[in-house]
């Protein structure tokens, strides 16, 4: 009875949300390895996971393995219909997988010597779909952002833009769909796909799922105990002029010797005539290992470390690095307690390493609904300048997020 | 050691120097060459790097004035090694050329990077969105062609699969 009322409440909230902003999800949960899922394709339409629509099986698992069950158990092992797209209210053809994602956050940041910063941020408001006819595939997303994400923008405003984070077409090369050749705007296949897109391993390598996608052609493989993707990057065509576009390659390979352990390596090289940050010719190399391990079902350990080397014409070379380790503890299904630690050095001359620590909790309270809280303490290294020694700047950030996905 | 070997070794050392490097002597060269009374730094008494670099510490991307000296007046683009003669030469040509007013700006304590003429000739800035794509010149591979090629491949694969599935009569 209570669950039914909660579901009714969630439906009402979601309907209101949908009236204002029809949305799309980034549901990159690499800790699903605790359930023996080393690969992504059983649940995600994107072969490297994280992006795009969920498969029918993925929707079912979100009901059986993701949300809090409130003592219901798994019953007969059949997923509840509310786990389906739009809580099962709309039945889509088998060939069409649809989804939506809305994530709103309250953000508060207090940096040393700076005024308190507080704001509400619409992090995601996307719709997405994936069409599969025979071996032919087509997928894409469209959304709205009040601010930021310009590198995924379809419109040209400084704010309030329509964006498309990804859109691609492809062809499955075998009957099982384990090989996919696709082209278009694609999430860069690099490292662990985390929804924490501000992790330094994602920002320094420019491989987050927020707006760092690039156009190109990729070949992805997903087998029982290994997966990988290699992409030829043709540039981001949402950025004008052509001199700012990065071209090169990006890829990863991950091997899973057991169903609860997977380790991989990533590599990327790009060149831009004018780097979008530094304005000069830039050759970027990023390489690094990553690992996912569930020593005990409630506990998953994730770690990644990447070296980043940049050759900036006229502005020197810089060798930096970024890495993180995360422990995800799920004391009861649907409640995740996480500790995350990061280290980073961008490679600027005389820059000391930066550190941070996250304490996070995620509660998957209802089908398609979760709440997330983060507390982040950051110690940022500041490079020495002439007459000024290297120093640190400390800041504390609090985040509270409301997330609905369909 | 043969000269070519020495050059290779020097090049490798320079390439793998790792950290961004600066040219700490350049501000003094600017002061002496332009006969300024003190090192000029538009950001204040921070050493002079900000005249050409985007931060007061130098070693970062160039500001428009620095880019102009490199691109138009022959300042060495070597990020590792300081090349004072090339800076002296670049400043000399700057004073004698059409952009001499920038030197006047510096002598008057004005940041030449804010000069509208310099801003107009500065590095291009990125624009975003599909709406600007039509007026931008793209020399890169077209996404449309890419999509068309993949679509053709998909159709061909589907046709082949259909033929395989057709029952034998």
Q: What is the helix tally of chain B?
A: 7
CATH architecture of chain A: Beta Barrel
Structural class of chain A: mainly beta
Helix fraction of chain A by DSSP (H/I, runs of at least 4): under 10%
Low-confidence runs of chain B (pLDDT<50, min 5 residues)? 9-21, 133-144, 164-169
Mean pLDDT of chain B: 69
The level-1 CATH class of chain A = Mainly Beta
User: What Rg of chain A, in angstroms, do the CA atoms define?
Assistant: 21 Å
* Number of E strands of chain A: 18
Q: Label the overall shape of chain B.
A: elongated
- Amount of helix of chain B: 40-55%
Count every beta strand of chain B, where a strand is a DSSP E run of 2 or more residues: 1
Which structural category fits the helices and strands of chain B?
A: mainly alpha
Topology overview:
The complex is a heterodimer of chains A (406) and B (169).
Chain A: H1 2-20, H2 56-66, E1 96-111, E2 117-133, E3 136-145, E4 161-163, E5 167-172, E6 179-186, H3 200-203, E7 214-222, E8 226-235, E9 239-240, E10 247-258, E11 261-272, E12 282-296, E13 299-312, E14 316-332, E15 335-345, E16 354-366, E17 369-382, E18 391-405
Antiparallel strand pairs in A: 1-2, 1-18, 2-3, 3-4, 3-5, 5-6, 6-7, 7-8, 8-10, 10-11, 11-12, 12-13, 13-14, 14-15, 15-16, 16-17, 17-18
Chain B: H1 3-15, H2 26-33, H3 64-73, H4 84-96, H5 100-107, H6 116-120, E1 127-128, H7 143-165
């Amino acid at each position: 009875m209570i669950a039914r009322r909660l579901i009714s409440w969630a439906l009402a909230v979601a309907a209101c949300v949908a009236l204002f902003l029809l949305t799309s999800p980034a549901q990159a949960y690499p800790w699903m390895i605790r359930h023996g899922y080393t690969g992504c394709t059983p649940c995600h339409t994107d072969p490297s996971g994280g992006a795009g629509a969920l498969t029918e099986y993925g929707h079912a698992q979100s009901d059986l393995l993701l949300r809090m069950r409130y003592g219901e158990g798994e019953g007969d092992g059949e997923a509840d219909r509310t786990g389906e797209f739009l809580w099962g209210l709309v039945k889509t053809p088998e060939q069409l997988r649809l989804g939506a994602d809305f994530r709103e956050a309250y953000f508060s940041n207090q940096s040393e010597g700076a005024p308190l910063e507080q704001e509400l941020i619409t992090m995601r408001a996307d719709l997405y779909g994936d069409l599969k006819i025979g071996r032919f595939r087509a997928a894409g997303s469209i959304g709205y952002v009040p601010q930021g994400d310009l590198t995924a923008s379809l419109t040209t405003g400084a704010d309030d833009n329509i964006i498309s984070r990804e859109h691609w077409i492809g062809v499955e090369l075998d009957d099982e769909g384990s090989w996919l050749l696709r082209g278009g705007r694609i999430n860069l296949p690099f490292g662990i796909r985390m929804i924490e897109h501000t992790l330094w391993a994602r920002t320094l390598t420019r491989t987050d799922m927020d707006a760092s996608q690039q156009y190109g052609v990729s070949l992805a493989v997903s087998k029982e105990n290994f997966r990988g993707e290699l992409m030829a990057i043709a540039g981001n065509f949402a950025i004008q002029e052509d001199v700012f576009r990065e071209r090169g390659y990006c890829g990863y390979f991950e091997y899973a010797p057991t169903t609860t352990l997977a380790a991989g390596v990533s590599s990327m090289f790009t060149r831009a005539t004018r780097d979008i940050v530094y304005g000069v010719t830039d050759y970027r190399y990023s390489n690094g290992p990553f690992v996912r391990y569930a020593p005990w079902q409630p506990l998953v350990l994730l770690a990644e470390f990447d070296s980043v080397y940049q050759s900036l014409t006229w502005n020197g070379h810089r060798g930096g690095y970024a890495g993180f380790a995360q422990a995800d503890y799920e004391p009861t299904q649907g409640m995740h307690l996480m500790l995350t630690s990061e280290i980073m050095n961008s490679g600027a001359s005389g820059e000391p390493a930066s550190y941070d620590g996250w304490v996070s909790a995620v509660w998957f309270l209802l089908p398609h609904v979760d709440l997330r809280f983060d507390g982040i303490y950051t110690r940022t290294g500041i490079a020495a300048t002439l007459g000024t020694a290297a120093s640190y700047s400390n800041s504390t950030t609090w985040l509270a997020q409301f997330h609905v996905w369909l | 050691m043969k000269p070519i070997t020495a050059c290779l070794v020097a090049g490798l050392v320079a390439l793998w120097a790792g950290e961004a490097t600066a040219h700490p002597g350049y501000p003094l060269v600017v002061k002496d060459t332009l006969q300024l009374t003190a090192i000029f730094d538009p950001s204040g008494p921070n050493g002079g790097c900000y005249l050409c670099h985007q931060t007061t510490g130098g070693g970062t991307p160039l500001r428009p004035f620095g880019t102009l000296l490199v691109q138009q007046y022959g300042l060495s683009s070597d990020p590792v090694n300081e090349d004072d003669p090339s800076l002296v030469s670049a400043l000399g040509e700057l004073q004698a050329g059409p952009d001499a007013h920038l030197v006047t700006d510096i002598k008057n304590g004005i940041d030449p990077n804010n000069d509208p003429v310099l801003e107009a000739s500065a590095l291009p800035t990125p624009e975003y969105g599909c709406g600007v794509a039509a007026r931008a010149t793209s020399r890169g591979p077209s996404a449309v062609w890419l999509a068309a090629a993949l679509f053709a491949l998909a159709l061909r694969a589907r046709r082949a699969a259909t033929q395989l599935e057709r029952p034998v009569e």
